[in-house]
Amino acid sequence: MNAPAEPRAWNTRAQQRARRLARVASALGPAPRGKQVANTQAVALLNAAIEPFDRVCLEGNNQKQADFLAQALVQVDPARVHDLHMVQSVLALPEHLEVFELGIASKLDFSFSGPQGARLARLVAEGRLQIGAIHTYLELFARYFVDLTPQVSLIAAQAADADGNLYTGPNTEDTPAIVEATAFSGGIVIAQVNEVLDRLPRVDVPGGWVDFVIPAPTPNTIEPLFTRDPAQISEVQVLMAMMAIKGLYAEYGVQRLNHGIGFDTAAIELLLPTYGESLGLKGRICRHWALNPHPALIPAIEAGWVQSVHSFGSELGMEDYVAARSDIFFTGPDGSLRSHRAFCQAAGHYACDLFIGSTLQVDLQGNSSTATLGRIAGFGGAPNMGADARGRRHASPAWLKAGAEARAGRSGAAGTPRGQKLVVQMVETFREHMQPAFVDTLDAWTLQQQAGLALPPIMVYGEDVTHVLTEEGIANLLLCRGDEEREQAIRGVAGYTPVGLARDRRMVENLRDRGVIRRAEDLGIDARDASRNLLAARTVRDLVRASGGLYRPPKRFRNW
Amino acid sequence: MNAPAEPRAWNTRAQQRARRLARVASALGPAPRGKQVANTQAVALLNAAIEPFDRVCLEGNNQKQADFLAQALVQVDPARVHDLHMVQSVLALPEHLEVFELGIASKLDFSFSGPQGARLARLVAEGRLQIGAIHTYLELFARYFVDLTPQVSLIAAQAADADGNLYTGPNTEDTPAIVEATAFSGGIVIAQVNEVLDRLPRVDVPGGWVDFVIPAPTPNTIEPLFTRDPAQISEVQVLMAMMAIKGLYAEYGVQRLNHGIGFDTAAIELLLPTYGESLGLKGRICRHWALNPHPALIPAIEAGWVQSVHSFGSELGMEDYVAARSDIFFTGPDGSLRSHRAFCQAAGHYACDLFIGSTLQVDLQGNSSTATLGRIAGFGGAPNMGADARGRRHASPAWLKAGAEARAGRSGAAGTPRGQKLVVQMVETFREHMQPAFVDTLDAWTLQQQAGLALPPIMVYGEDVTHVLTEEGIANLLLCRGDEEREQAIRGVAGYTPVGLARDRRMVENLRDRGVIRRAEDLGIDARDASRNLLAARTVRDLVRASGGLYRPPKRFRNW
């Protein structure tokens, strides 16, 4: 009964791996230097190592890109290598889509496509690319170990040694998750490196997990995505940051948090040592962070606000500063940052009390999305962090207070005491080009139709949002009871947008009386105090100065 | 404005590390063999390396234990080393609590304390141990990178080489998360190993992350926690397994799932190649798994049901079988399993459509707990997997169907389309000693008072449970509208327990008419067919036979 119906081979992955390695050996000739392959042989290597319909991870991170391998992949022979299923977190380079245009790849599972969002939408519309799904980062990594395990991974590191050990330097990012899933399932791992060293400053990925190392002709691309020039922060953003600090961070006693990209949150970071200090909040809020080394956090770190930072990736120019602040950042014996997106996303999910992020559109249910017509932007880390971590069981004052507010007066399962994560959407009521941020219907619904998705690409669900913060005030959705109250709370901070103008004034005033909506003045904030003078740094140069010269911003941010 | 008020040292962690290493060097004398320390010097090493109030992770996994280091830790001088804050996932060994009895440690953050639960409760009651919080595994690992970073970690591996590279073999488990958090924050990592080799079969942890290696006098303890003898599976469990397969797995088309420990789920595994086959379900359900190498899964694997398994840890006796089935399991070049609890928990959270587990108590809201009076058992992985992963964005048929059932007819934020994870509580109405599994009030409430916890230690919240499965049928809580329906749906499968007897018969019949409650006969299952003959293996010996002799059960499971 238990015996298989017919004999079956149980090591086909190992056989396939051996077949690929033999093909590579024959294509490249005897390898003179162990795992090392000359960059002139990169295309030949890929032609030999990859098979049609393979799941391939071409390392595209939020920052670091395996750009040389991307350039090699678009040169493979589509007659040999075709119908690849790309499984990678970020589409950042033109080559990431070119593989689809060239017929090398046909299916895509990913997380974020920021700069390539419009082109991606076009390829989908033309039927040249099938989207499996759009994920949040940790979700995609999780599937690497279940049903999206890569057969071949093309990754990037700073350096390798003769044994194939890799040094990623500050940008470890996705690499450990990708390599582990591939290497332990009989897959092939190919790394481009900037240099080959006799002895690495530290080992980030063991050499036994890596099959081939290619010294790339130029260092891999890295984008400084988390640098925000304080000169561009507006006084409206200062006002909103004051409300965030006094009305949310202080109100809930938020000690552990994540900040996303954006000027709104950069303003908060820059107000901690000034406005936050004046409120006596030092040590009482914002001690532990899950975020990349934001230059805007330098003044708060220098003023002693920050106890620890764990990072998804790094940030260009912050290398010396991070090395000199090893009490704060996770660093290796070489002094440079150890980032790790998978662990940092786990930290953002389970060990932070608050996620605050910007968005492009918010609807009347509080659903928000950065998807706009003609662009498939993806989600990045926001869904993972901008959702209640329902598996969390440890308590903190902020989490308990949010949970108690959500559950007050409720019965049954919804009344069982439980904490809740604070998920704040921070938006100006009008975004660029006077587009209202508040809408009756998200563009995501149209995009769902256009891209043939199972659900609209909602980044943060209204059910998970606890507060909406605009220049008009804070709507506390935890305190709302019923759809009608929730809708009016959102309308009540939506300003002069059509959604805001359609508010029920009496109901909104009632919500304000109950503290569901709080305006700046309700928080004891005088909007006239919201001056750029409150920013602890008003220019990038100020940030450099605050760092004692340790922060070395990329050229594009230097205008002095 | 930005300059710190007074000069501050920013590398105190590095200084502290240097101080500890210098103290170790002076205590041990010059180390003759690099990082290697004789086991006779273990206590001296810990006395020198650990400081009072340190956060210490003494690696206690679900299976693998750093037992030699635990024995050394209880021998340190409490006058020197005291008030440690232990941050470790599992309390399994007597020494894990002895450190508190001896005054060496005073605070504890953990996940699971199975065998030590009663002693732990006693220590808490006596005020000799302060519990920080009880976590689910991934949550605790997440905090290692935020506010519970260990200063010293005492870990276990199979082997080390002269450079301190570690080979964990099949039981990698928690080790990568622990070591990474410690090593990249200036902490000290001390590993006990079973042997020192010139060349490791593979590297699981790079040597640069490890400070000291101690060859232990005896191999580290490993428990075969996931072996369930099929001989102990009852016909009631067979009936429940039939309902699970037909009424849940087939109904939703569950392809990716996690099974916990337990005879209930072992019965499901053993029915796949028999009952599942007879329903034509092969290839349609249960293809991808996040679970340890359960011996009970052998017949399903051999019959071709299983495409992939990623594991939290390993299982004793399954080594040769796993090595011979490398298409199914994640294995290294040495042939042995690569487990990784952090990634497998991420997989269980984000990449599985269903979690099914047993529990000890379920209340009328559907909240469940394994906490019983006088025992602080902890949560393990259940909360992480037994909760809706609200950050998930990729769709699958099972997830979409569950989400649609939950949202049908709802408006507002709760009506926005979204998928949902299937979370099934599988319990017989009476557990051991005729204790009812259904109760009006969970013991967790009393335990909260006794242990001074912020919330009752609920393992899986009723809000997250989608189905309750007993021998009396399946209650689909997704379809319930309102507290009253939910309560009656639970009562309706609670059998002859007081909770079950107090059902409103008319309402329960109405729920049954609507398919909210489904009895075996409603599913076309004749309870008389629920015979042990349906099990693909009825003894451990059958499992060995099904494995072609590759499975080698530990002695205690061999009775032939």
Description:
Two copies of one chain form a homodimer. Chain A is 31% helix and 14% strand. Chain A is an alpha/beta fold and 560 residues long. In chain A, strand 10 (288-290), helix 10 (298-302) and strand 11 form a beta-alpha-beta unit. Chains A and B meet through helix 1, strand 4, helix 6, helix 7 and helix 10 of A and helix 1, strand 4, helix 6, helix 7 and helix 10 of B.
Q: What integer is the average pLDDT of chain A? A: 95
Count of DSSP H/I helices of chain A: 19
Total count of strands of chain A = 20
**Globular, elongated, flat, extended or rod-shaped: what is the shape of chain A?**
globular
Largest sheet of chain A: 8 strands, mixed
Q: Helix coverage percent of residues of chain A?
A: 25-40%
Head-to-tail CA distance between termini of chain A: 79 Å
Radius of gyration of chain A: 25 Å
Structural class of chain A: alpha/beta
Of all chain pairs, the largest interface belongs to: A-B, 122 and 122 residues
From the structure provided, what is the oligomeric state, counting identical versus distinct chains? homodimer
The fraction of residues assigned to DSSP E strands of chain A is 5-15%
As residue ranges, the low-confidence spans of chain A are none
